[in-house]
């Protein structure tokens, strides 16, 4: 039986292989690729990296400890409101174990950020299941973070239109879940206040904090009276 090339992969992993051995094989395989930037699509590299991850002690931890790692990370690193979603996306790319834990951990998706794109809002509402929600809405921040490069800052009317469209889409999706809301901080245009009328009188047994900052109105408190 002929010897196997350094970058070839057997059908079953060698129980004696080490991370160093796999790194060497990954380097050898990368050297044979005409375009290393496409390495993510190589079945052989995907398999080698899967084997490598399986040898890393972190990935061998019990699920309970991995959950604790994710909770600590979100508390310490993603403490600024509205940043949970982007950090969850990064964590889900670490490994399949992290991906499963992040996607199944409903508590991790219960913070809906101030400038989160609507597909992210929808994902958080689904994956948070019945968890109490922290809701933050700031359409100006949304425009700056998501639309800024495509908008001329002198076109205020265009920016205002985008803000109002975002606010409506955000509230249309979130307000049906108002009974789950624990914290709500809303910075919205006066035109968006009408959307709140249907829920302000609704039961909100979990609500601990509610703040609203109106824009474009002389008396923002008038709406709440």
Structural features:
about 220 residues; alpha/beta; 4-stranded parallel beta sheet; elongated; disordered N terminus; disordered C terminus
Main sheet specs = 4 strands, parallel
Helical fraction:
40-55%
- The helix tally amounts to 9
Order the strands across the largest sheet as they lie in space. 1-2-3-4
Mean pLDDT across every amino acid position:
80
Q: Could you spell the SSE succession in H and E letters? A: HHHHHEHEHHEHE
Class based on secondary structure composition and strand pairing: alpha/beta
Pick out the low-confidence regions.
Answer: 1-12, 218-225
Counting DSSP E segments of at least 2 residues, the number of strands comes to 4
Radius of gyration from the alpha-carbon trace, in angstroms: 24 Å
What does this molecule look like?
By secondary structure, the protein is of the alpha/beta class. It has helices spanning 19-32, 43-55, 63-76, 84-91, 96-104, 118-127, 139-147, 156-174, 197-200, and strands at residues 111-112, 133-138, 181-189, 209-215. Helix 9 links the parallel strand 3 and strand 4 (209-215). Helix 1 runs antiparallel to helix 2 (43-55) and helix 6 (118-127) packs parallel to helix 8 (156-174). The longest helix has 19 residues, at 156-174. Residues 1-12 and 218-225 have low confidence and may be disordered.
């Amino acid at each position: 039986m002929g010897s196997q090339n350094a970058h070839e992969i057997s059908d079953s992993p060698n129980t004696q292989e080490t991370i160093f051995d796999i790194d060497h094989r990954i380097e050898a395989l990368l050297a044979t690729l005409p375009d290393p930037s496409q390495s993510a699509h190589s079945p052989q590299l995907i398999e080698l990296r899967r084997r490598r991850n399986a040898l890393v002690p972190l990935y061998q931890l019990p699920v309970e400890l991995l959950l604790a790692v994710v909770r600590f990370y979100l508390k310490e690193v993603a403490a600024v409101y509205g940043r949970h979603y982007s950090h969850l996306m990064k964590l889900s790319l670490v490994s399949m174990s992290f991906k499963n834990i992040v996607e199944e951990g409903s508590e991790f998706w219960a913070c809906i950020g101030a400038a989160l794109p609507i597909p992210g809002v929808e994902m958080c509402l689904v994956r948070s299941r019945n968890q109490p929600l922290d809701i933050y809405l700031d359409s100006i921040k949304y425009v700056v973070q998501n639309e800024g490069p495509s908008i001329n800052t002198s076109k205020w009317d265009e920016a205002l239109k985008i803000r109002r469209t975002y606010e409506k889409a955000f509230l249309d999706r979130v307000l049906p879940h108002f009974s789950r809301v624990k914290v709500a901080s809303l910075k919205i245009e006066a035109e968006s206040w009408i959307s709140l009328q249907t829920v302000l009188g609704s039961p909100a047994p979990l609500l601990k904090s509610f703040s609203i900052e109106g824009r474009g109105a002389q008396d923002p408190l008038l709406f709440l009276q």
